[in-house]
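Fold sample X.
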Amino acid sequence: MADAREWSALQAVIRKAVAEGRLGRPAFARAFVRGITPPDAREALESLTALANGWFGAEGKVVRRLGEEASGHLLALLRWPGGESALLCVGPGSPGSRRLDLTLLGSHGAVYYHTPEDLGGLSA
């Protein structure tokens, strides 16, 4: 079972890969978190946005936002000044079980991640 330490470790691995240039220039991110309860949907989407801002080194502009907080389904399309983009989604799933599917593409590398079990503390 993943916990907050594992979530922090994942963030650190991605930051290190970006900082060391192993991806080249990060260009596109797709992240989907399942298992979000409707009251937590906005906060989870904001956490994903903060992570993407860190990967791309600037604050992204929301191009399109879809979904309703009451349902727990939210989606945001973002674009950054350097042309980077991201598709970030949160949605409900099994109660008490948060899972992350992540793809971060760079100019000559990629990071793929999928949590097979509960993703503990989802925060930026």
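Fold sample Y, listed below.
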Amino acid sequence: MLAVATACRPRPAPPPPPTTVAPPLTEAPLEPSGAAALAVGPIRETRSADGRAVFIEGTVENVGTRATQTITVWVNALDEAGMVLERVQALPTPQDPPPGTVARFVVQLRDDPRVRTYDVEAIGR
């Protein structure tokens, strides 16, 4: 009978709760990362001396709130109906312009008499 009486003893009381509470986990607010935004500046068309090529020069301005990276410019030569006759890619310099600064580009296209205008696209991240 002694064994049965020992096994039925009440459990000891749990320990009291801690008197100090750990502070909750908090995160510091992050600075806004900003946005990269590009604006194509005026372009200039120059014919080569031999009349076989056209050079398109221009600028891309960073009008965003952070530096950009990996800028690609596409220059499209368009005919009267807006159809693309030729498409050329350029990598402006510098590739990482800070906000408020410009990158410059130049491309060479064939001197095609059907070309009426140029469309310039700038893409960056």
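Sample Y note: Residues 2-7 form the longest helix (6 residues).
Also: Strands lie at 38-47, 53-62, 72-78, 84-90, 102-110, 117-123.
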